Amino acid sequence: METSGFFESPASTRYHNAFKGGLMQHSWNVMKTWEIKCMNLNLIVDPETIIIGGLLHDLSKVGKYKYDKETKSYTFNNINPLWHPYYSVIIIQRYFQLSDQEAICIAFHEGAYGLSGNQIKDWNNVKEKYPEALLLHHADMENAFIIEKRGIN
C-alpha cells in the first residue's frame, strides 16, 4: 500500500477530497460510516469485512489522477475500460481472496450509478441478499456528496 500511491492519491478530481491523501481519508471515512450504519441497524458484519470493504472499495483509483501545477487541480487519467468498482475487486484479489460478501459489497458500492439493463436487476438482487452492500453504498455517497464535499470531516 505504501508504494502504490494509495496514501498520496486524491479521491476525485473536484467533487470530494480532491487533494493529496484524499483517497485515504475518504476510504477511512467510508469505513467508519459503514461500521456505524451496520451497528445502528444491528446488521452483523465481520469487522474484517468492514475494514476491507471500507478501505479498499476505491483501490482502482490509485494512480489514476494527475496533478496539473498550472491549474492546481487534478485530472482523471484512466485507460482501463473496466468500471472502477469491478476493477477494485480484481486488484484486491491479486493479493488476497475476498469473500463473496466482500467482493459483492465492493463491486456494487456505487449502487445503481453506471448500471443499465440486467445490471440494475443484479443491484436489486444484491440489495436483498446483501443489505450491507446497500449500506456501503450509502456510506460512500454520504461521505462523498455531503460530509467531504462540505469539508465537515
Write a short abstract of this structure.
This protein is mainly alpha-helical and 153 residues long. It has six helices and two strands, in the order ααββαααα.
Structural summary, described in words:
The chain is mainly alpha-helical. It is 49% helix and 5% strand. The two termini are 23 Å apart. A hairpin with a 4-residue loop joins strand 1 and strand 2 (73-76). It is built from six helices and two strands, in the order ααββαααα. The protein has a two-stranded antiparallel ribbon with strand order 1-2.
Note the topology.
Elements: H1 22-40, H2 47-56, E1 65-68, E2 73-76, H3 84-92, H4 100-107, H5 118-129, H6 131-147
Antiparallel strand pairs: 1-2
Helix pairs in contact: 1-2, 1-6, 2-4, 4-6, 5-6
Q: What does the main sheet amount to?
A: 2 strands, antiparallel
Structural class: mainly alpha
Whole-angstrom Rg: 15 Å
Rounded mean pLDDT is 90
Q: Overall 3D geometry?
A: globular
Q: What's the SSE pattern?
A: HHEEHHHH
Q: Give the total of beta strands.
A: 2
End-to-end distance? 23 Å
Percentage of residues in strands: 5-15%
Low-confidence stretches: none
For this entry, give a set of tags:
two-stranded antiparallel ribbon; 5% strand; 6 helices; 153 residues; 49% helix; mainly alpha; single chain
